[in-house]
Design a protein that fits this description.
Blueprint: H1 3-6, H2 10-21, H3 26-44, H4 55-59, H5 62-66, H6 72-84, H7 86-92, H8 111-136, E1 144-149, E2 152-156, E3 159-163, E4 174-177, E5 182-186, E6 192-195, E7 200-206, E8 209-222, E9 231-234, E10 239-242, E11 246-251, E12 256-262, E13 265-269, E14 272-276, E15 281-283, H9 303-306, H10 320-323, E16 329-336, H11 341-355, H12 357-362, H13 366-376, E17 384-394, E18 400-409, H14 415-426, E19 431-435, E20 438-442, H15 447-456, H16 466-476, E21 480-486, E22 495-505, E23 508-517, E24 546-551, H17 555-566, H18 571-574, H19 577-584, E25 586-594, E26 604-610, H20 613-634, E27 640-646, E28 649-655, E29 664-670, E30 673-677, H21 680-692, H22 700-705, E31 716-720, H23 727-739, E32 761-768, E33 771-778, H24 785-798, H25 800-807
Parallel strand pairs: 8-9
Antiparallel strand pairs: 1-5, 2-3, 2-4, 4-7, 5-6, 6-8, 7-8, 8-11, 9-10, 10-13, 11-12, 12-15, 13-14, 16-17, 16-21, 17-18, 18-20, 19-20, 21-22, 22-23, 23-33, 24-25, 24-31, 25-26, 26-30, 27-28, 28-29, 29-30, 31-32, 32-33
Helix pairs in contact: 6-7, 11-13, 17-19, 19-20
C-alpha cells in the first residue's frame, strides 16, 4: 500500500488531532475513572441467575418469546442462538430432543479483558457520534410536523391521509398543503421548512445530502448549518444547493423563482450555476418577471423575524398628465409614441368607424375629430414627449366634456412655439392651452375653459383613485397602450373601473383587461381564487389541443351560488344534500382538456382536486340512486354503474341507460385527484402523463404562449392549439351553410369563425383581492380584434352594467382609498 493510500482522511485526521490535543480537567478524568470502576464492580458482582449459561436457559425463554414478553436484548440473543444451535431450534419447532446439559463452568474474566471491553465500547460510541455529526451537521433530528394551520396531507399510492402537528414526517413521501393552509416542518438534519397553501414537496436522504423536491407551490427554508453535505431543493427546472441559509423557492407553471435573505445559495439551471447572496433573486423563465424579494416572504408567519424592514424606495416620478387630470375624469387613454402605438391607435379607430355603423353613429361627434387629430399629430410628434393622453371629464354642470389631448413637450421652452405649430397643423378651430413643459388641446369648443383649473392645480383626487393607480402600474411595466374608464360615478355592481392594456412582450403582443371592484370581490366575482399552482394539469399531455383550468376559493359556496342563479328559493334550500357533500370534499381545482382525437368520441379529460375521495364517492353514489328513483317514477332507464379493481387500482363507471360511448364516464382516484374520461384508456393515459412528469405545462408551445408578468401561476386559463383539429367540423358546417345558401367565402356559415386553421391562443385570469385581470396572447377563438371592432365592442359596452351586477359585490362596501 502506497503512503498516499495509507494516509488518513483529512477530516478524520483533523478530528483525531483535536481530540488528542484537547486538554481535560484532572477532576473530570478522576470522576470518569471512578464511574467506570463502579460499573465494573457492579458487573463483577451481578447475580449468576441473570445470565444464560446453557441451552436449558435459552429454552426457558421460549414461552416469553412466543407471547412477546421478552425484552429486546434477550430476543436478539435467543434468535442468534436458534440460528447456531440445531437442538434448540428443533425444540423450538416442537420436535423433542433429549440432550444432556454440559456442566456449568464459571470462568473469571481477567481485569485486563474488562478494561479492553470498556475501551471498545467507548471508542465505538465516540465513532458513532462523530459519524452522525459529520453526516448531518448539527446532528440527527426527528423529522416531524411542527405545526399546521388548516389541512396537511400525505399523498401515497394508498390514498390521501391527513397529517397533524407532532406526527413523524415520512421520508420520500409527497406532502401537500390544502387551500388556505400553512404548515411548518422539521427535517432530519434540523432544517425547518414553511409551506404555503397548495404546495407540494417530498424529502429524501442520500448519503450526506438531504434533497427536497418541490413539485409546486412556495416554501421558505431555514437550512441547518452542517460540516459536510448539502441541502438541495429541486424544482422542475432548477436545483438549489445551500448550507446554513434562509431562502424562499417558488415553483409554478411558468417556472421557478428563488429569493435569498440570509447566507449563500447556488442555483443550477441548464448546466449553468449562479451564486445568490442576501437580497438577490433569480427566475428561470423568460415569461416570469422578477419581483421584490420581500414579497416572497410576506406570506410567512415568521416574516417579522426573517425580513428586516428596509427604508421605502423613493417614489417614481409621477407623470404630470394623469396627475393634472381633474378629479371628475371619466376615462383616460395613454398612447406611447414608441413602438408605433400612435399609428396603431389611429388605424384601429378608423376600422371601428368603418366596421361598426352603430358605434360610428353614436360617436359621430368626437370620434372623427379624434381620428383627424391623431393623423395630424404625426407632423409634430418630434416636439411632444413620450406619450399622448386623451381624456374626458365631467364639467361643473355634470355633463361629459372632451376629448382633451394632453402631452408633455420635448423641451421646457417649446410650449409657446408648439401652440403656433399645432394651430397651423390642426386648424384654427382647435383650442390650445400651454403651461411650462405641458400642452393641452381639444377640437371641441369650450372644453379647455372647463379643463383649465386642472392644469393649474396640484395633483388632485384623481391621482389617488384606483383608476390612476392602474394606469401608473401599466406605465411602470414598460411601453404599453392603456385605457381606463373610471366608474366611480356609476359603480355598476360594485365596479370602480375597467382598464384595457396592450403591450409588446418581446415579439409577442399581449392584451389585458382589468375589472376593479369597490372592496373585496364577492358574489360570482369572488369565486375565483388567487393565482395558484394547478396540479390537475399534470394529467394533461403536451399534445392537448384545448385546456381549461381554474381554481376557486370555496367549491361549496360556488355550488350554492349556482343553485341560487337557477332557483328563486335560497340556495341552501335548493341544493341537494348529495351535491353539498360532494362539494365539501373538493379542493377547488379543476381542469378540462381535449387530449387526443376529437372524432368519433372526443378524448376529453377531467381532473378534479379531491381532499376526501371516500366522501366524494359516497355522495356520487347517493346522487346516482336519487337519479334512478326519479327515472323510475317517470318511466326512464336507470344509470349503469360499475366498479372494477385492476392491478390494485379501483376504476368506476357511470353511463347512460342506453349503451352509447358518448354518455359513458370512467374515473379513478389518484394523488388527491379524481381523473375522468370517456374510456378507461383515456384515464390510464392521464395517469401515465403524471407518472412521466411530461405534462402540458412542459410543452414548448404552452410555455411560449404564457403572458409575461410577475405571476408564477394563474387563477384560470384557457389554452387552445386546435390548428386543423376542427377542420372536419368546418367542412361539415361549410357544406351545411352552402346547402341552405347562407355560406361565406370558404364555405363557412355566416357569423362563424374560420375553423379550418385556428391560430394558438392563451387567455389567463388573475384573481386579486379587489380586482380581476384577464391577459391574452395570440388570437382567442371568436374574440379577436376583428370581432371586437366589427360589433362586439358596442355590445360589450351596452351590457357593461349588467355584467357588473353579475360580477360585483352583493351589498355596498367601503371603497379602497
Amino acid at each position: 500500500m502506497t503512503p498516499e493510500e495509507n494516509r488518513m482522511d483529512p477530516d478524520l485526521e483533523r478530528a483525531v488531532t483535536e481530540i488528542r490535543e484537547e486538554a481535560i480537567d484532572p477532576a473530570v478524568v478522576e470522576a470518569a475513572a471512578a464511574h467506570v470502576w463502579a460499573r465494573l464492580a457492579e458487573a463483577a458482582h451481578a447475580a449468576p441467575a441473570d445470565h444464560i449459561r446453557d441451552c436449558a436457559g435459552f429454552q426457558a425463554l421460549f414461552a416469553d418469546y412466543r407471547s412477546s414478553r421478552l425484552s429486546e436484548a434477550r430476543t436478539l440473543l435467543l434468535r442468534d442462538h436458534l440460528h447456531a444451535c440445531v437442538a434448540c431450534r428443533r425444540a423450538f419447532e416442537g420436535k423433542v430432543v433429549e440432550f444432556v446439559a454440559p456442566p456449568a463452568v464459571r470462568q473469571r474474566v481477567p481485569v485486563s479483558a474488562r478494561w479492553a471491553v470498556a475501551a471498545t465500547v467507548l471508542v465505538a460510541a465516540g465513532a458513532s457520534l462523530w459519524i452522525a455529526v459529520d453526516r448531518l451537521g448539527t446532528g440527527s433530528a426527528r423529522p416531524m410536523v411542527e405545526s399546521v394551520n388548516g389541512n396537511l396531507y400525505e399523498i401515497t399510492d394508498a390514498g390521501i391521509m391527513p397529517l397533524a402537528a407532532g406526527q413523524d414526517l415520512p421520508d420520500g413521501v409527497e406532502i401537500r398543503t390544502a387551500r388556505d393552509s400553512f404548515a411548518v416542518l422539521r427535517l432530519r438534519d434540523g432544517s425547518r421548512v414553511e409551506m404555503r397553501e397548495r404546495s407540494d414537496f417530498s424529502a429524501s436522504q442520500s448519503g450526506r445530502d438531504l434533497s427536497l423536491r418541490l413539485g409546486r407551490g412556495s416554501v421558505i427554508v431555514e437550512a441547518a448549518k452542517r460540516r459536510s453535505g448539502h441541502l438541495f431543493v429541486n424544482t422542475a427546472d432548477c436545483r438549489v444547493a445551500v448550507t446554513g441559509t434562509v431562502f424562499g423557492v417558488n415553483a409554478g407553471m411558468k417556472g421557478s423563482r428563488i429569493s435569498v435573505i440570509q447566507g449563500e445559495v447556488h442555483v443550477a439551471q441548464e448546466n449553468q450555476e449562479k451564486v445568490l447572496h442576501p437580497g438577490d433573486q433569480e427566475v428561470t423563465s423568460a415569461s416570469l418577471e422578477p419581483g421584490a424579494v420581500q414579497d416572497d416572504f410576506a406570506w410567512s408567519r415568521e416574516r417579522d423575524r426573517r425580513v428586516r424592514t428596509r427604508p421605502a424606495a423613493a417614489p417614481a416620478r409621477v407623470r404630470r398628465r394623469p396627475a393634472r387630470a381633474p378629479a371628475s375624469t371619466i376615462f383616460f387613454v395613454s398612447i406611447p409614441q414608441a413602438g408605433g402605438f400612435l399609428d396603431q391607435a389611429q388605424e384601429m379607430l378608423r376600422r371601428k368607424m368603418a366596421q361598426n355603423p352603430q358605434l360610428r353613429d353614436t360617436m359621430a361627434g368626437p370620434l372623427p375629430a379624434m381620428d383627424t387629430m391623431l393623423g395630424k399629430l404625426r407632423a409634430v410628434r418630434g416636439q411632444l414627449g413620450d406619450e399622448i393622453a386623451i381624456l374626458a371629464f365631467a364639467g361643473p354642470d355634470g355633463k361629459e366634456k372632451g376629448p382633451v389631448f394632453l402631452a408633455e413637450t420635448a423641451g421646457e421652452g417649446l410650449a409657446g412655439t408648439l401652440a403656433g405649430t399645432l394651430k397651423a397643423e390642426l386648424g384654427s378651430s382647435v383650442t390650445i392651452a400651454s403651461r411650462p413643459g405641458l400642452v393641452a388641446f381639444s377640437p371641441e369648443h369650450g372644453v379647455l375653459e372647463a379643463f383649465a383649473p386642472a392644469l393649474d392645480a396640484a395633483p388632485n383626487a384623481f391621482a389617488a383613485s384606483p383608476c390612476f393607480k392602474r394606469i401608473a402600474e401599466s406605465q411602470a411595466g414598460g411601453i404599453s397602450l392603456v385605457a381606463c374608464a373610471n366608474l366611480d360615478r356609476q359603480a355598476p355592481g360594485g365596479m370602480r373601473y375597467v382598464a384595457v392594456e396592450q403591450k409588446l412582450a418581446g415579439s409577442q403582443s399581449e392584451s389585458r383587461a382589468t375589472l376593479g371592484f369597490d372592496g373585496p370581490r364577492t358574489g360570482i366575482a369572488g369565486w375565483l381564487a388567487a393565482p395558484a399552482p394547478m396540479g390537475s394539469l399534470d394529467y394533461v399531455s403536451p399534445e392537448a389541443s384545448f385546456v381549461a383550468a381554474f381554481a376557486v376559493n370555496d367549491p361549496a359556496a360556488v355550488m350554492d351560488d349556482l343553485m341560487g342563479l337557477f332557483h328563486r328559493a335560497p340556495a341552501s334550500e335548493q341544493a341537494p344534500q348529495e351535491l353539498r357533500q360532494a362539494a365539501a370534499a373538493l379542493g377547488g381545482e379543476f381542469a378540462l382538456a381535449l387530449d387526443g382525437p376529437m372524432f368519433p368520441v372526443p378524448s376529453w379529460k377531467l381532473a378534479i382536486e379531491v381532499y376526501d375521495p371516500a366522501r366524494f364517492q359516497a355522495a356520487l353514489e347517493r346522487s346516482v340512486e336519487t337519479f334512478d328513483r326519479q327515472a323510475a317514477k317517470s318511466g326512464g332507464k336507470p344509470l349503469r354503474t360499475s366498479r372494477e379493481t385492476v392491478n390494485g387500482r379501483v376504476y368506476y363507471t357511470i353511463a347512460g341507460g342506453d349503451p352509447n360511448p358518448l354518455t359513458e364516464v370512467h374515473y379513478t382516484y389518484a394523488g388527491g385527484y379524481a381523473i375522468a374520461g370517456p374510456s378507461r384508456a383515456v384515464v390510464n393515459s392521464a395517469l401515465q402523463v403524471k407518472s412521466a412528469g411530461n405534462s402540458v405545462t412542459r410543452s414548448a408551445k404552452f410555455v411560449s404562449m404564457t403572458p409575461r408578468d410577475r405571476y408564477m401561476n394563474f387563477s384560470a386559463l384557457i389554452y387552445q392549439n386546435l390548428g386543423t383539429t376542427l377542420a372536419p367540423l368546418a367542412g361539415l358546417l361549410g357544406a351545411f351553410g352552402n346547402l341552405h345558401g347562407g355560406g361565406m367565402p370558404g364555405g363557412i356559415p355566416g357569423g362563424m369563425p374560420d375553423l379550418s386553421n385556428i391560430q394558438p391562443s392563451f387567455v389567463a385570469a388573475y384573481g386579486e383581492p379587489d380586482r380581476i385581470t384577464i391577459a391574452a396572447t395570440g388570437t382567442p377563438l371568436g374574440i379577436g380584434p376583428a370581432a371586437l371592432e366589427g360589433g362586439s365592442l358596442s355590445g360589450l359596452a351596452a351590457n357593461l352594467p349588467a355584467l357588473g351586477q353579475l360580477l360585483g359585490t352583493g351589498k355596498p362596501r367601503p371603497a379602497f382609498r
